[in-house]
Amino acid sequence: MKSMYIMGLQVKLKFTLFSLLLLIGLCISGCSTTSYNGFYNGYNQAYTNNVDFEEHKIPRDEHTLIAREYNPKNQGKYPTIILLHGFPDSSHLYDLLVPHIKHRRHVVTFDFLGWGRSDKPENHVYNTKSLYKDLEAVIRYFNVEKVELAAHDLSGFPVIDWALDNEQRIDSLILFNSVYFPSEKLLPPEAIARFSEDSIYRDISAWAVKQFDTPWKNGHEEQVNKFFCNEDTAKTFVKIFNHQSMNIQQAFLEMNRFLTDEVNQRREMLPKMKVFSKPVKIIFGAEDPYLNAEVAKEFHSLFPNSELHLIKSACHFVQLDKPEEVANIILKSDTIE
Fold first, then answer.
1. Among 28-42, 165-179, 200-214, 228-242, the least confident range
2. Phi then psi for 153, rounded to 5 degrees?
3. 313: alpha, beta or left, given left = phi > 0 and alpha = psi -120 to 50?
4. Model-level pTM greater than 0.85?
5. Which CATH superfamily is domain 34-331 in?
6. E-assigned strand segments in 85-192
7. Hey, where are the domains in the chain?
8. DSSP per residue over 118-134, as a string?
9. pLDDT tens track for 71-89
């Protein structure tokens, strides 16, 4: 007699295959996606016309990272802050924040390999080591001696790793709704849960989104919408991130395959976090159900020289929901010259 476990697997497999066949049938019968190409181009042109920056092509081994530098004349006079995006977004995550801080910062934003406008090599391993090397390439390119690093979401991995390895070169850290260590408090976003779980469901889902544009774009748009509290801001930036989403599939899917192991490996870094002496500002959207206020409190308990800021009416994308409030926190301890 077959065990209940085997029978359960068969039922789940049949259900998953049925769902996949239904999805394929819907797509073949004519499902469609919305193109935001015109919207994105118009937004980019308006932003370029209204915000001064220099674009850089940064060598990263044989590949290229795309970065934007704001107020280069401030380098040496004010701290250099490098703002790192999370997944599944891009450096546009900081478009509303940068205008509020660039007068008192030398600001750099960039897209990781596989994301945004940076190169997307096919024969590349997209994991946290890759993110770390991207960050190192940017720091080296701008010849930064001491740096203020700001992480969001999965960029918590390279930011905290690099900071623990190079504490003497850190001015301070900023953590926006970030992940780094195993926590029972966090709730993985639905898309992360689907593609990071080691299961046949993940593999079939990954296959499906590679074959058909609709489930990927619609799923991406649905997930990113949940990261906002500010509905007006969401109307703009959901379109921007969704426009870029079709080119990030490989990086997103591979990163998720490594994610559980990457999180578990950071358990051994907890002792180093507890003796990290540089200032850490923990700025979380209080309404984020995923990387939530309880996760923020865990970071606060681990970093001895940290301050905790829970921003009301802000969700996962706290820097887009409340850019002015976030900017005030970043700049509040500065000495005005």
1. 28-42
2. 60, -130
3. left
4. yes
5. Alpha/Beta hydrolase fold, catalytic domain (3.40.50.1820)
6. 106-110, 147-153, 170-178
7. 34-331
8. S---SS---SHHHHHHH
9. 999 999 999 999 999 999 9
